[in-house]
Task: inverse folding
């Protein structure tokens, strides 16, 4: 016979309200709803990547990348010249 273990989870008020509304609407108990959510999440660990731990490298779109090269030099010196050039370009 399989034994069960108790788990304590802390939810924000918003999360608790959403869970309560979901359970009221579906007629499920909170325990069953959480167990089913875990089953779905853990069914395919490759697909179920925890939030905020994306292994993909975040990069700006190609349109932005092509424009970024002139701004990378700001870390090496005084950006006033570039700011002045941009200001005059906008004012033109």
Result:
């Amino acid at each position: 016979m399989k034994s069960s273990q108790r788990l304590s989870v802390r939810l924000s008020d918003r999360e608790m309200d959403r869970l309560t509304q979901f359970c009221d609407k579906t007629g499920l108990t909170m325990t069953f709803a959480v167990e089913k959510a875990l089953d779905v999440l853990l069914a395919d660990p490759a697909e179920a990547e925890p939030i905020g731990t994306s292994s993909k490298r975040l990069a700006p779109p190609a349109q932005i990348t092509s424009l970024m090269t002139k701004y990378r030099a700001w870390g090496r010196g005084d950006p006033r010249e570039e700011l002045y050039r941009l200001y005059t370009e906008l004012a033109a």
About this structure: The chain has a mean pLDDT of 77. The chain has four helices and no strands. Residues 13-43 form one domain. The two ends are 79 Å apart (CA to CA).
